[in-house]
Task: structure prediction
Amino acid sequence: MNDISHSPSAAKATATKAPPEVPQESAAVPKMRAEKVSVHYADKQALFDVDLDVPENQVISLIGPSGCGKSTFLRCLNRMNDTIDIARVSGHITLDGENIYDKALDVVELRARVGMVFQKPNPFPKSIFENVAYGPRIHGLASAKRDLEEIVATSLQRAGLFNEVKDRLDEPGTGLSGGQQQRLCIARAIAVNPEVILMDEPCSALDPIATAKVEELIDELRENYTIVIVTHSMQQAARVSQRTAMFHLGYLVEEGPTDMMFTNPTDKRTQDYITGRFG
Amino acid sequence: MSEHIVTSYDEELRELARSIAEMGGLVEQQLDDAVNALLSTNSQLAQDVILGDRQINQMHYQIEERAILVIAKRQPMAQDLRETVAAIRISHDLERVGDLGKNIAKRALAIEDQRMNHQLRRGVEHLASLGLRQLKDVLDAYGSRDVQKAISVWRSDDEIDAMYVSLFREMLTYMMEDPRNIGMCTHLLFCAKNIERIGDHATNIAETITYLVTGKQMERAATAPSAG
Result:
């Protein structure tokens, strides 16, 4: 028998517990802001009037079924769509309040500030050292050899790869395992000291251990960088991001705190997608 | 709600909800029997209730295992996640209600040779009917995913609390009047306390249903009843 309390006043001790509502993080000035962004590939419109803020030092994940426009949107953020002849971008995107589609803006410099990591690890066919050193060198970030070595070591350390490769920096980057190659690409991206890192399904080609390492890394990088990640793994979005944006058929359907999106989304399309009801 | 692309996932969730309904029905029956055993001093019925609790515990484990398997296999999200977590929580509350019913049955055995005061008997009977009604209503609310009904169960808990307090005072009076009443009254007091606790579990389930359907925790401020 557990019941030793005779006192009626103790009667409702456990029945009326209800945790206080968690206050939502107030949105600070966004690092990047997209307003009415539309993208056409020739005659086909792939993205429709997307308004989205990318908050500083947070991870925002973009989710949605294949062909929903999330990667298209991601590529707008560092003008990677410029490389596609038939792509036409309209609308307004700012980085720290500055229009990134301004004609006077140097695209190479933009891509140094807004770095990118791709789905498949794509190290250059060069040594591990050269993979990381390449960016800082062409951007003139290091004047002496020692500076360059320092940048390479720091970047590899930040990417959590240094200890695994420090004795073989001269070996080709392509000789590393898939997970190591992806972290090498992340080291390469952060070597030029970007402010925003875009990641397009960075773990889809990795095993669970390598994925865990990259996710751990994303969490650490958040301190110094703003991260936008496209992912097909709902669990990954739930784990790594603070905010989540759901795309469907080229529209931004819903955007909000990740915790809310995965326990109680407001839009039925989000609900259906994350619970596996349509593909 | 439309169906999952993976049909076996739907089946697993349906099975989980069906098991909760089945367990709820069993717990209701056990509680009804326990109260009858107490009021009619039927020791055979009391024995049956005590033995029957094992089956409830068994169902509790099964539901928990099934829910854990769903989490491991499907990584449920949103509504599905709430559905799975609700099954775990409700089966836990039902298991506790089963235990409380078993305790009442044990008390029934302990007082079977004593004469029960008519007034007290009616008091316990009334309290028990309130408890049973709460349990039945909240299980109905689960079956139909009816938040309004769950909230009304949650609010009605006041009635049980008030009834319990008045029964408590009454028994206190009897015990002070004649110390020979102490034995019987103590047993009945425990039974009343058990029923009052069952009411609390019904409110827990009502809260779980609200969360399951709306995705929001029941707000304390908006619905809190006055202290009992």
Observations:
- Chain B touches chain A through 45 residues (CB under 8 Å).
